[in-house]
Amino acid sequence: MSNRPLAAAGRLLPLLRAGLIAGVIVAAAAYPVVAVTGLGAKATAHAVESKTRLLATALPAETSYLYAPDGKTVLTMFFEEYRQYTKLADVSPHMQQAIVAAEDNRFYQHHGVDPKGVARAFVANARSSGVSQGASTLTMQYVRMALRDSATTPKEVQEATAQTPIRKVREMRMAVDLEKELSKEEILERYLNSAYFGHRAYGIYAASEIFFSKTPKELTPVEAATLAGLVKSPSQYDPASSDQKDATARRNYVLDNMARLGYLSPKAAEAARGEPIQLRLTYPPHDCAAVPEKWNSWGFLCDYLKNWWSAQPAFGKNRLERLDKLRRGGYRIVLSMDPKVQAAAEKNVGTEGNTGSPFANGIVVSEPGTGRVKAMAVNRTYSLEVNENPLSSNPEAGPNVRANYPNTVAPLMGGGDLPGYQAGSTFKMFPMLAALDAGMTLNTTFNAPHSYRSEIYDGWQPSNASGAMSGTQTMWSGFGKSVNTYFVWLEEQVGAERAVRLAEQLGLRWRTDVDRDHASPAKANKWGAFTLGVSDATPLEMANAYAAIAADGRYCEAIPVNAIYNRDGTPATFTTPGGIEREIAKPRCRQVVSADAARAATDAARCPTGDTPAKGSCGGWSTADSVRGTVGRPVAGKTGTTDSTRSAWFVGYTPELAAASFISDPDNPFNAVGDGQSQIPIAAVSNTLRDALKSTPTRDFVPPSDRIVG
């Protein structure tokens, strides 16, 4: 037997010891290319074939786009890899030819592995005692990129990219198998959409936009050659660097190859070589901080969208998986906000010229019957730049902690991890609604004293804000005047736990240890102060809870989107526990209380606003009697203040919209806003409803039945 193969192998041992891929090249050269699929143990064959089939259908990560309600205006994007998948028909033929010329001259002749390329690389690498040339075809490169992009663990990423003989053999085998599954055009399309071109540009769409501010279909031969040259080493051949020498040389190499392959005439190639590289750099917006300045306040709703998304099981098992889906899934997301309503909200909380106060005045507007958030605004600038903010008003915050104004991205209106603000007497809605749903009537009467001692609540003794509130009250007058002692007594009759559970059914969540403790099954029935609004709540929660009352007791989860589309244009869906497929962006509603109970609560809630109920008497005065005149149509709602007016609220609604506004210091709840500013939320809601509903036909509330009136 000849000893020549042994001698050749001996000469290559130093290369193998260095961890180089020459051994793989030797193996590939020693056998016919068609036999590459036989390399490797049988135990791994099935796994490789399964992975190849998966790669034949897998698509790379793609940028998700957030649109304004018109479904056309892009507000921002979410991505880890900026990429938009582009069909080969929408890519300039020059670009298709340039990438072949740059990376794989024999792409259309081989079947996944190029035997001539393998042999050439083997010889060159043996002569140089290293790896001076590779043998990777476009198909092999695509396999490597697809394995990397589809990896779900660090180990899989390492296996896909490690410079090892095992990886190279697997890559060759999968490339041969993949060419049996996909056409050359399909492989080229996937390659162009997977390759990295530098400057966060993944795929040809992103590269065309970032470097030349145009679509892939518009690329000229010079531009195509420039981009194709980047794939080998995006940093070394970066044309946006101060010195374009390397980038130009690489581009010219590609142009020469294009001419040699017949894609360009020698004359055209020579002319192209003489052109300078002329860039028109564009950097895509990313995340909510990149929402255009003219729509700055929309950043808060964008931020809420992210928090909402991260809580949806349809997008993954946990928060990290869901946000990863947002950044890689290629979704088209249309915000639910109504620009007219948003403009009214921004105007009436002073998003411009009123951002320099420690007191945040925010508003959320929700749509009854859908739960869609129509507006979200606060007297703050949505910005990550907080270095120029003054120091926090909270003495316990520390010496160098910045306040949340004028710039912040904190979720001050809800939807995030902030607990909210004590909502005061706006909570009186919950025991009243619970009592009505339990069978009590609007005419339920109690002679409410100025101070009331509760034996059920262990001798707790609340008082009214004014002596004028004492006397015989019904639900209409008690709600209109905000009589504490009437509602503590009413809560006793229906049971505090019933009111607490109803608030939960209407979307409230307890975010502090104190609130969770009081709301627990063991203690909820003793939570007498619940009706006075000692719990923290957010404007988002309160607007949505009151929207359910406007919708005849039908609660709809708060939702920040009108539509969510998959990358293929189909609506994004999820499967319910009952096995029903539903669109993620569709309203999710359920009946929480009877329609008659909700209508009765609305009739009483017309009293605080100065409106006239359909069936009863408000008792002569109310806490926000200017609202009806401002809104100019039937309106219901409730005021709320806390001890020492640390915060003030108003929640109001018409049949079309529900709005909740607050004023408080988010940094320091003990920094009281004072009685002088308690009218600000009332004005914010009433003016916003007036402006938002201008030119909208007036609708009246449906009156309650005589049975529930009593």
Automatic annotation (TrEMBL):
Domain Penicillin-binding protein transpeptidase: 363-667
GO CC terms, sorted: outer membrane-bounded periplasmic space
Residue intervals passing through the bilayer: 12-34
GO function term, MF aspect, one: peptidoglycan glycosyltransferase activity
Single GO BP term: regulation of cell shape
UniProt KW Glycosyltransferase keyword: yes
Keywords assigned by UniProt, alphabetized: Carboxypeptidase, Cell shape, Cell wall biogenesis/degradation, Glycosyltransferase, Hydrolase, Membrane, Multifunctional enzyme, Peptidoglycan synthesis, Protease, Transferase, Transmembrane, Transmembrane helix
Catalytic activity: [GlcNAc-(1->4)-Mur2Ac(oyl-L-Ala-gamma-D-Glu-L-Lys-D-Ala-D-Ala)](n)-di-trans,octa-cis-undecaprenyl diphosphate + beta-D-GlcNAc-(1->4)-Mur2Ac(oyl-L-Ala-gamma-D-Glu-L-Lys-D-Ala-D-Ala)-di-trans,octa-cis-undecaprenyl diphosphate = [GlcNAc-(1->4)-Mur2Ac(oyl-L-Ala-gamma-D-Glu-L-Lys-D-Ala-D-Ala)](n+1)-di-trans,octa-cis-undecaprenyl diphosphate + di-trans,octa-cis-undecaprenyl diphosphate + H(+); Preferential cleavage: (Ac)2-L-Lys-D-Ala-|-D-Ala. Also transpeptidation of peptidyl-alanyl moieties that are N-acyl substituents of D-alanine
Residues of the Glycosyl transferase family domain: 75-258
Keyword presence, Hydrolase: yes
Family note: In the N-terminal section; belongs to the glycosyltransferase 51 family.
PANTHER family for this protein: BINDING PROTEIN TRANSPEPTIDASE, PUTATIVE-RELATED, PEPTIDOGLYCAN GLYCOSYLTRANSFERASE
Protein name, as recorded: Penicillin-binding protein
Organism: Micromonospora craniellae
Lineage summary: Bacteria, Bacillati, Actinomycetota, Actinomycetes, Micromonosporales
